């Protein structure tokens, strides 16, 4: 049993054993010999490990392991007499943060020849075998540290324990700073760009942390004047790292929310706090957290308490100044889009955030603009399914690899409408991509509309596929990272394998197939009450 809820997101013990050997300067062949593995196994395993930590190069993976304490950090040691020149330190940091040699050369304004010459000089003076060994020695000599994080986990300098929450009149909690919102650039920012010394608007990054039950993480904290107030986790960006990275660091440090659970930007709001101060507010999506992670996230030290609430229960608890922003962010989460606000007001053209009545009012009162209209109208997900049967009438089902549940599905997928693809073309592509079969499609069996509120609604076009014989079944080739298995099952047997709406859809389509009726108009898999089957004469 996996005890650490982050275990599926972090490198496996086998991958870390390989990394520990590579960190000592061993190349692929030497590491394979030391571990009793084939060189190809070492390369493949390391490539997979890189993907888990979100980096491209093994030297950046070694640095990320030290940052996250996945490998024992090197014992501090005195550097060679000559040490490292400032330009060599800068170059070493570029590699640690996952730059390729070309990217590092471009950033340091060097030719590739000059870069290779400098790396060779540093390797010679430090007696390093390769770049992975350089990273390890950089940590040992104090040149590298966790101060800048890693390419996959950028960390912002912050306290290691949650300080006392600070309540402001604007209704935010700065969980990583004791002082009020500052308009002064950070020291790191001005060191990189002297022009940043000019006044710049502060950026607040807040998090909509979700769990698998659709709830959000809400903080409750005392106000100086007494009573309690509610907010989302919020940090003020220092400018040393992107706002989302600094927010991810705080969530990881204080709530055990792993950086890999950072998803996307939900909402942007610009507030005028005073005649001379505007604040930019970003709201990001994190999660969903499983049951164990959700429980750990609520174990915060006093005076702050954390709890999970349904969005409809949480939103009325927020200060009035942020209610609209949080509501718009929740809408953006559900609709797979983004909300744009100014002063806490959703702007025309915002893809998310409009309440139903307000959206209709805007459409009727504002001159029709195609761009704005298309932006804020609700979207629908379009997909296809293919019913492939064998001579016995059983249908083919697939077991997805990436699904959080154990449910099976019909072959099919989304329609790439932005690329000019139609339903029939999408169905043919799905058969080739998922099964390796290039077979003709039959007629349309049904169109199924699934209500999604508050999530996006879906419309599925279900096509008849060919009848699969033994030769066709033998030619099926699955893509392992997409589908784990396939099987032929009857409609009755599929009841234990598929979701209830898909069972209704499959039953209706197989019935239409054998009764030679359709196409059917379905709603959530069931025939619409006004739609009767149309008999076909083929």
From TrEMBL:
Residues 378-511 form the Nudix hydrolase domain. The keyword Amino-acid biosynthesis does not apply. Keywords: Hydrolase, Magnesium. PROSITE patterns: NUDIX. Its cofactor is Mg(2+). This is NUDIX domain-containing protein. It comes from Streptomyces melanogenes. The lineage of its organism: Bacteria, Bacillati, Actinomycetota, Actinomycetes, Kitasatosporales.
């Amino acid at each position: 049993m996996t005890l650490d809820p982050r275990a599926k997101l972090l490198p496996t013990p086998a991958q870390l054993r390989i990394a520990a050997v590579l960190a000592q300067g061993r190349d692929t062949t030497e590491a394979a010999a030391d571990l009793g593995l084939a060189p190809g196994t070492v390369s493949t395993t390391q490539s997979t490990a890189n993907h888990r930590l979100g980096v491209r190069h093994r030297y950046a993976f070694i640095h990320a392991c030290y940052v996250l304490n996945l490998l024992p950090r090197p014992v501090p040691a005195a550097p060679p007499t000559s040490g490292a020149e400032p330009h060599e330190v800068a170059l070493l940091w570029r590699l640690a943060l996952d730059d390729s040699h070309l990217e590092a050369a471009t950033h340091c304004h060097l030719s590739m020849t000059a870069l290779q010459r400098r790396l060779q000089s540093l390797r010679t003076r430090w007696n390093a075998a390769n770049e992975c060994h350089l990273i390890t020695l950089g940590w040992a000599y104090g040149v590298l540290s966790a101060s800048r994080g890693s390419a996959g986990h950028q960390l912002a300098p912050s306290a290691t324990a949650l300080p006392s929450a600070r309540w402001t009149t604007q209704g935010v909690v700065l969980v990583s700073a004791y002082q009020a919102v500052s308009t002064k650039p950070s020291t790191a920012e001005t060191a990189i760009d002297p022009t940043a010394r000019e006044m710049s608007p502060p950026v607040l990054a807040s998090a909509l942390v979700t769990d698998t039950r659709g709830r959000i993480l809400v903080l409750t904290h005392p106000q100086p004047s007494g009573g309690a107030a509610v907010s989302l986790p919020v940090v003020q960006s220092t400018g040393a790292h992107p706002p989302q990275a600094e927010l991810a660091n705080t969530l990881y440090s204080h709530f055990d929310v792993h950086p890999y659970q950072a998803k996307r930007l939900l909402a942007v709001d610009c507030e005028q706090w005073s005649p001379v101060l505007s604040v930019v507010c970003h709201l990001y999506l994190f999660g969903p957290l499983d049951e164990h992670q959700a429980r750990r996230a609520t174990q915060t030290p006093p005076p702050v308490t954390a709890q999970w609430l349904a969005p409809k229960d949480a939103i009325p608890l927020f200060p009035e100044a942020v209610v609209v922003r949080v509501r718009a962010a929740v809408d953006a989460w559900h609709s797979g889009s983004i909300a744009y606000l100014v002063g806490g007001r959703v702007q025309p053209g915002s893809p998310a955030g409009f309440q139903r009545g307000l959206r209709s009012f805007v459409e009727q009162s504002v001159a029709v603009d195609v761009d704005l209209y298309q932006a804020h109208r609700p979207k629908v997900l379009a997909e296809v399914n293919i019913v492939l049967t064998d001579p016995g009438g059983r249908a083919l089902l697939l077991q997805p690899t990436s699904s959080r549940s154990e449910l099976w599905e019909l072959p099919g997928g989304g329609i790439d409408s932005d690329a000019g693809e139609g339903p029939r073309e999408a169905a043919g592509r799905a058969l080739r991509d998922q099964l390796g079969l290039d077979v003709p499609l039959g007629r349309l069996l049904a169109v199924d509309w699934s209500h999604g509120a508050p999530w996006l609604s879906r419309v599925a076009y279900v096509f008849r596929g060919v009848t699969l014989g033994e030769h066709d079944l033998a030619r099926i080739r699955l893509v392992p990272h997409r589908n784990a298995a396939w099987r032929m099952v009857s409609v009755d047997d599929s009841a234990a394998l598929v979701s209830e709406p898909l069972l209704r859809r499959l039953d209706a389509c197989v019935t239409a197939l054998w009764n030679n009726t359709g196409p059917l108009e379905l709603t959530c898999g069931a025939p619409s009450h006004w739609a009767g089957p149309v008999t076909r004469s083929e």
